[in-house]
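User: Is it possible to get a 3D structure for a protein together with its bound compound? The compound here is magnesium ion. I've pasted both below.
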Amino acid sequence: MNFNIAVAGNPNCGKTTIFNALTGAKQRVGNWPGVTVEKKSGHYNHSDIKFDVIDLPGTYSLAAFSAEETIVRQYLENDEADVVVNIIDASNLERNLFLTTQLIELGKPLVLVLNMMDMADEKGLQIDVDTLATLLGAPVVPVVGRTGEGIDLLKEKILRVSTEISMKARLIDISYPRDIEIEIEKLHQLIQENDVTDKHSRWTSIKLLESDQQTRDEVRLHNNGADILDQAKVSINRIEGLFKDTGRAIISSARYGFIQGAMRECVVESLVGSVDYSRQIDRVLTNRWLGLPIFGLFMWLMFKLTYDIGSIPMDWIDSGLVALMNFISDLLPNSMFASLLVDGVIGGVGAIAVFLPNIFILFLIIAVLEDSGYMARVAFIMDRVMHNIGLHGKAFIPMIMGFGCNVPAIMGTRILESRRDRILTVLINPFMSCSARLPVYVLVAGAFFPDNAATVIFSMYILGIIAAIGSGKLFSRTILKGMSKPFVLELPPYQRPTLRSLILHTWERGYLFIQKMGTVILVGSVIIWVLGYFPREVELDRDYGSERTTLTQHHDTQLADLESKFKKSVDQDRSGYHSEMIAYESSSSYLELHEQFQLLQEELSSKKSKQLYSLRQQEIGDITEQKWIGRVGKIFEPIVRPLGFTWRESVALITGFVAKEIVVSTYGVLFGVGEDVDEGSQGVISGLRSSGMTPLVALSFLVFTLLYTPCLATVAAIKRETGTWAYTIFSVAYSLGLAYTLAFGVAYFGRMFNWLS
Amino acid sequence: MFNFKKPRHKLHISDENDLRLSDLKPGEKGRIVEIGGSENFRHRLIEMGLTRDAEIWVDKYAPLRDPMELIVKGYHLSLRGMDAQKIAVERIA
Ligand SMILES: Nc1nc2c(ncn2[C@@H]2O[C@H](COP(=O)(O)OP(=O)(O)O)[C@@H](O)[C@H]2O)c(=O)[nH]1
Ligand SMILES: [Mg+2]
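Assistant: Yes, that's possible. Here is the predicted structure of the complex:
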């Protein structure tokens, strides 16, 4: 036997805490179909009965105002749940009971949980639990979710309500003012007379008085649905005339009236010794003058911790990967399989794996900010700024996170309540320049703007922010217009986060990252490896082997020349040397000659290795040009030529689509510096310079790199969070379009005014 | 077939004397007279406990002057000035 239990309640009332306390670690996180609202399910056993528990999204009402409310209402109306467990924040009783009145009317077997009893005590609230249970007609269990106090009793109550018929009987109706009751009764009778299989006919009547669209659509399908709707119209007219407001507002106010009556009977508030600690904390944290600097400090700390602490295990992972690569190369020397493993799989996936510590730390910090209640304050502080681009204050968090990595940032848009805000934030997030783009800036700016590298890099960040803001304004005035919701934000009390919930939150999100992004990156890396590895045999126009021999021979002759010249001068010098005291080999004139010789010799050999190196670079460039990767680059070359790019940039940008860091390693491959090139590498820099790239083209390349889709993992995250391919494709197309336009602008005006040529 | 216009009761935007929630200073207290604005907005606020006659306390304004922080029914709520302007209140001591 098993029962379905639904946990419902206001946001921040402790649903998830109680859900975790009930189910322990046995839970699954998914999404509700069609929307990106997290769906958490788990189970527990009690008295040999299995209870499947669902953690419903937090809602203030069942009015179907938001995606969350629609989900909750559909789930409850569809009778999937056997018992509803309504979590009520006892320290915020009045507003929490508003949802409870609706749940009571819905008529499901109900268990009421008074959570946060500790906070209620602190506030000086004394709640008469038994009277409350009588007034509301459902069992009431006081608990402290954080400590698990009262959870056993809750399980017991859930068991009884599930199994004992007598416990299910609904004893009370929420009572409304007489004039409203009369109309409810009229509708109620009419619905019942028309033999409707409606199990919640009183609920339906009340919803009709609220002109609820969903209910009206359902009633229309009933026998005599038109009659019922006509009666509803008459009834609404009557109460609206009496109360001078809309039906829905009248009903809502009446619910609050009922709640106030109940509160009078069972809550005693003693103000003695009660302190609103959160308000005290907020005197500092959201203070008129201190609020912003403190927020800035927290953000700075977030970055600092993410990168500083993250870089420690990063180095371990890095050296671990290098060791693994060497091990495999030694084991399977020169085989294709080894190359696939080392260059393809480990090289590609490893490039992402090194970021895992950063990502987990970032998620941990975000979890702390969320669980403590500070996140709501961030929304409060930053709303003015974000409102400018048609967004909610909370949207600031994912934007900042985007500087680290767009993938967790896009996943972080889940903290936003409205779908429109989430989509808008997801769409502009890729313009926040993530850390993976930095190596590209460092390399290219270092090569072409050695004196102003920092300025160039900084302007890329600024350009990214401008692109995000501009696009945000554009989207909120065009494709995402008019879907905005009013800003009504609760500032919940501050809480000390529990370790358990921090670990759970961090792991849930981090695991998704490992799972989803690992697969995408793996496939992408293997594809790039294949493109760069095949075909094995390529035909080259130049015979590099003989050129190399000629070059070596040429140098050898020069070296021989130099030696014979030196010998000759020494012989000449010695014949004029007469001192008996010092051997000729120790004389100053000999030493001078010898030193000169050595200098020339060194010069020659360094010239030789430089020329050989450059030849090798050209050879590798030529080889790569013939590989599939080069051919792909050639195909796209005509498209990027107006920007001043060659097939090399075209290849680098294509591979950069998988992950931005790969742009650097691709240049490494193209200039034959080896896969393990690091961004400061002189080989790539000299390769770039000798490839004919001008500073102007370099700038245009940087602009393109900044603006086009950051990586495949980001695309996957966009798909995941928006839930549709339409927005995903739009995002890729839009950012490519913007990147192309702006890069073209740079190249075009640059040429026109002859800048940086 | 069934279609009528709401709200009946309009907010008297023209009335020079009427006081709005956005006019209250930090530390001032008001009683809600009426909420204007879109249907969804009004209903959302009422559902959050901003019913007619509810007492509302302006706690503070955000560092950038917007939004504002309110205390209603014992909890803290934040609204933008432009939304608070749609709420007519009477000042209480
Ligand atoms: N003081 C106190 N805090 C609690 C209690 N239950 C939950 N919390 C905290 O309240 C915050 C919100 O809880 P959460 O379960 O995430 O709420 P949800 O939004 O309803 O899922 C968290 O910081 C919890 O640690 C409780 O009984 N007492
Ligand atoms: Mg939750």
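Chain A touches chain B through 54 residues (CB under 8 Å). Confidence is low (pLDDT under 50) at residues 675-680 of chain A.
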